[in-house]
Design a protein that fits this description.
The structure holds 2 protein chains of 2 kinds. Chain A has 11 helices and 12 strands. Chain A is an alpha/beta fold. In chain A, α9 runs antiparallel to α11. The longest helix of chain A is centred in the middle third of the chain and has 29 residues, at about 150-175. The radius of gyration of chain A is 30 Å and the shape is elongated. Chain B has helices at about 15-25, 40-45, 65-75, 100-105, 120-130, and strands at about 5-10, 30-35, 50-55, 80-85, 110-115. Classes of the chains: A alpha/beta, B alpha/beta. Chains A and B meet through α5 and α6 of A and α1 of B.
Chain lengths: ~375, ~130
């Protein structure tokens, strides 16, 4: 069992011993926590004594009364804020001075417990505080190991994978219990939707595979002189069947042969994602223009669409993993929310950059710049 | 025919989940109105008088469900709310509305992990509606 050191600062001995009695045999448990948390109590009667103790002992939590005979609780709080900001302070205040308690929490106290409190109230306050400490510890540990990003990624990923699973499972249960009757035709729509969600999951998994490929750094052994126009043409051909269904016309403007020393599969990822997005988020009968240019020591890939466009807010988050624009026009479009973050990673790998300009209802232009 | 069916408002941006919830809740004998976005739900909160609301947590925004709970309680303080989400307990950060501190900021009456069984859902709804 892990023990947290709790110091009770109150001039009333009855309160001090009461708190000690309540917390002595109290433990907090939390899923994913290896051991329960218990509490060691330290009792002091004045603010001066409290500061002395803080200097000499390791204290995690302070239960602090404000009305003290010498210096006030708020002054102790101030001292802690400056010298030991890791200590969590809970103010103990009477209901009459709730305003003060709120002010104290604004000034760095973690929380407050109104007096008089029941044993249960004290326990649940301590439970909260220790969970907070536990999570804070976890976070620092993960930051140290550089895992925070991966952790976030995994938790979002599990959400993205669970949503379609829940949907498909739900439809299967309905079918299993024959909730729409015996006629198989009554379930057509549910079967279609299930297949649609499975397709979405498959796309997500394909994107994840792309992502892991990129994560393995730039592999120069696969580098060759790549004709950019050729890759663009291949990407257009593979997306064209979908574009025809949406009546979107894709044109390629490439006046000279532009080559780049690169891994062709990296460039395929960039073109596939940008062009398929340009078609996907386009209007029926819309246009997509792909322009390749070499300027100075850079190659510019410009993908322009006449689609639904993006607001300023939306463009800000566009390259974040799993970010998807959610509105009336996009709600029936499936996507993993990974495509553009993948593009960004590839472009970063080549020390290039990717920019977007967009207007709602007019269209978006993506410009990728890669140094030769 | 003069029958007074209870009205349930369901908001979820996952159209499949929404479809299934509607089907289940209607089969329990309730009337259902649905919203696919937070915005639509906000309109329904203002213009209808549901007896129960079921909100998804993550819609247009990560905290859409919380916002809806808050607006719902302001307009219809006595109507129970279920907050449903697939936000996984495996992230290690799970939360409920059982403790008083959670209740202070999560204005829902019940928190449900998505994928709940139909009969369980029925039981929870009846409990909240005191049927």
């Amino acid at each position: 069992m892990e023990n947290l050191n709790v110091m009770v600062v109150d001039d009333e001995p009855g309160i001090r011993s009461g708190v000690s009695r309540i917390l002595r045999n109290f433990t907090v448990s939390y899923p994913f926590m290896d051991a329960d948390i218990g509490f060691n109590l330290i009792e002091v009667g004045t603010g001066e004594e409290a500061i002395e103790k803080i200097k000499t002992e390791k204290i995690e939590i302070v239960l602090l009364d404000n009305k003290l005979p010498g210096i006030h609780g708020t002054e102790v709080l101030e001292y802690i804020n400056i010298n030991n900001p890791d200590i969590l302070v809970m103010m103990i205040t009477s209901y009459a001075s709730l305003e003060l308690a709120v002010k104290a929490t604004n000034n760095g106290a973690y929380d407050f417990i109104p007096k008089p409190f029941t044993p249960q109230e004290l326990k649940s306050a301590l439970e909260n505080v220790s969970k907070h400490l536990f999570l804070r510890g976890m976070t620092t540990k993960m930051n140290k190991e550089g895992k925070e990003v991966r952790y976030q990624f995994l938790s979002v990923l599990s959400h993205e994978l669970k949503a379609p699973l829940n949907a498909i499972e739900g439809y299967l249960r309905i079918m299993q219990e024959k909730q729409a009757g015996e006629e198989i035709a009554s379930y057509d729509q549910m079967i279609d939707r299930s297949l649609h969600r499975i397709k979405g999951m498959r796309n997500l998994i394909m994107d994840l595979l792309d992502l892991t490929k990129i994560n393995l750094e730039k592999k120069t052994d696969k580098f060759q002189n790549v004709d950019i126009g050729e890759i663009a043409q291949l990407a257009i051909e593979s997306i064209n069947p979908y574009a025809i269904q949406k009546d979107v016309k894709i044109t390629l403007i490439n006046d000279k042969n532009i080559t780049l020393n690169a891994d062709p599969s990296d460039l395929e990822i960039v073109f596939n994602n940008l062009i398929s997005n340009a078609v996907k988020y386009n209007v029926d009968g819309g246009k997509v223009k792909v322009t390749l240019k070499s300027e100075n020591k850079n190659i510019k890939i410009v993908v322009e669409d006449s689609g639904i466009g993006l607001s300023k807010e939306e463009t800000d988050d566009l390259f974040k993993e799993f970010f998807r624009v959610k509105n009336e026009q996009t709600k029936h479009i499936t996507g993993s929310g990974l495509g553009l973050s993948i593009v960004k990673r590839v472009v970063d790998l080549y020390n290039g950059d990717v920019k977007i300009e967009s207007k709602v209802g007019v269209g978006s232009t993506f410009v990728v710049t890669l140094p030769i | 025919m003069g029958e007074n069916k209870k009205l349930v408002l369901i908001a979820d941006d996952d159209i499949d989940y929404l479809f299934q919830m509607r089907m289940h809740v209607e089969s329990f004998g309730f009337e259902v109105i649905t919203a696919e976005t937070q915005k639509e739900a906000e309109v329904l909160i203002q213009n209808s008088n549901p007896d129960l609301a079921i909100f998804d947590l993550m819609m247009e925004k990560d905290d859409s469900g919380f916002v809806l709970c808050y607006k719902m309680k302001r307009k219809h303080p006595n109507v129970p709310i279920i907050l449903a989400t697939a936000v996984a307990s495996e992230t290690g950060i799970s939360f409920g509305v059982d403790s008083d501190t959670d209740k202070q900021w999560i204005k829902a009456d019940l928190y449900l992990e998505k994928g709940i069984r139909k009969d369980q859902l029925h039981k929870e709804i009846n409990k909240l509606l005191k049927i």
